[in-house]
Amino acid sequence: MLAAAVFIAGFGVYKSVSPLLVGLFVILRPEASLSDEALRLYMSLASPLAGIAFVGVYWLLVRLVERRAVVELAPRGAWIEAARGVGLAAAAFLLLMAVLTLAGAIAWRPPPVGTWLGHISAGLAFGIASGVLTAIVLQGVLTRLLAQAQGPVFGVVAAAFAAAWWTGGRVHVNAQLGALIDGLTLALIFLRQERLWLGMGLVATWDGLMTVVKGGFYHGDDGNAARAFIFAPEQGSLISWLRGPGGPDTSVPALAGGALVAGFLAWRAFKEGRFTRA
Fold first, then answer.
1. Which sequence ranges are marked TM in the entry (predicted)?
2. pTM of the model
3. Domain that holds residue 81
4. For residues 181 and 51, what is the distance between their CA atoms, to the nearest angstrom?
5. Where are the alpha helices (DSSP H) in the chain?
6. How far apart are CA 32 and CA 74, in angstroms?
């Protein structure tokens, strides 16, 4: 319980302090002193380092607070598990983009920036860093510790609602529902594997690709239209309903697909007896 208290307190502090940090970032406005190219280069370099730092901090806390080997980050098989997550997320992303494009819910355009490569690298890098943090918090902290303290069902449900509160705190119900499904999926993956690499590969790839196509560098942001690869033309109520109010990841096909995946994982976890395991 001490470990759970320390980790969850840290999560709460992060949630409370992060708006202040964002406000400070806006006040300082580093983009005012950096060119677009320099800002993209900064994001491309700083974001992967931040992702590595998140993993390192988690490893250190587990070693110091829980005094045990960090088996969920053991290197054996890590690349294979992470690659599976990358492949699954990329396949889901391509399928979603194909469905929305064929339905006319989105249209593609080149972003009006100097270089496509800088835009892509910065978007991917920031998405990967935010994805790694999301996976560590939802899987390694909330699901793992709450499942140990209160049981697997409580841990999974708590992680799902925490995701809706943390990453889905926007005005659109679709965004909150999507975050709830994402959190449920990540929690169930960890419940079945008790490892972090697959989840980190999955959510980092999904966040990275979505950041590129939507524009903007901030996780959960609806994007900066000046840096986006796609836009959603207003083409009637049906298309608007299909498209989703917050971008492709809040569209009806994305929510339906995510719900099916979460349902399948829950069924597999139930068949494996994961929900009754102490």
1. 39-61, 82-108, 120-138, 145-167, 173-191, 196-217, 251-270
2. 0.80
3. 2-276
4. 23
5. 2-28, 36-61, 78-103, 116-135, 144-150, 152-166, 173-193, 197-214, 237-243, 252-271
6. 42
